[in-house]
Amino acid sequence: MLVYIGIKDERIRRPIPRVLMAYRIVIRATWLSVLALLSLPGLVLWAPVFITTTVVVRRYKRTGPIWDTFDEIAQYN
Q1: How far apart are CA 14 and CA 76, in angstroms?
Q2: Structure pTM?
Q3: Are 15 and 8 in contact, with CB atoms under 8 Å apart?
Q4: What is the 3-state secondary structure (H, E, C) of 11-56?
Q5: How far apart, in whole angstroms, are the C-alpha atoms of residue 3 and residue 35?
Q6: Burial annotation 62-71 (CB, 10 A radius, 16+ → b, else e)
Q7: Which of 33, 51, 53, 67 falls 20 to 30 Å from 19 in CA-CA distance?
Q8: Per-residue pLDDT tens for 1-55?
Q9: What does the alpha-carbon distance between residue 16 and residue 63 come to, in Å, rounded to a whole number?
């Protein structure tokens, strides 16, 4: 079961100290914040494209049976 979920024996035999775990969590949370702030302007600029695409796909899905709708979307693009 451990091999199936990707846990190796070494992680069970020698567990990581709690202080080191907390340090790693803080480092990763800091990186998450920095990278999110860097990507935020790009996401704001791309938001109209995402919204327009969502609206157009919803309209096409309403036009007919589902097996035919995806073919129309592929032909339209």
Answers
A1: 57
A2: 0.51
A3: no
A4: HHHCCCCHHHHHHHHHHHHHHHHHHHHHHHHHHHHHHHHHHHHHHH
A5: 32
A6: eeeeeeeeee
A7: 33
A8: 777 877 777 666 777 889 999 999 999 999 999 999 999 999 999 999 999 999 9
A9: 56
Distance CA 62, CA 72 (A): 12
Alpha-carbon distance of 73 to 44, in angstroms, equals: 26
d(CA 52, CA 35): 26
First to last CA, the chain: 45
How many C-alpha atoms does 56 have within 13 Å on its Cβ side? 12
Q: Where are the domains of the chain?
A: 2-76
Residue 61: CB atoms within 10 Å: 13
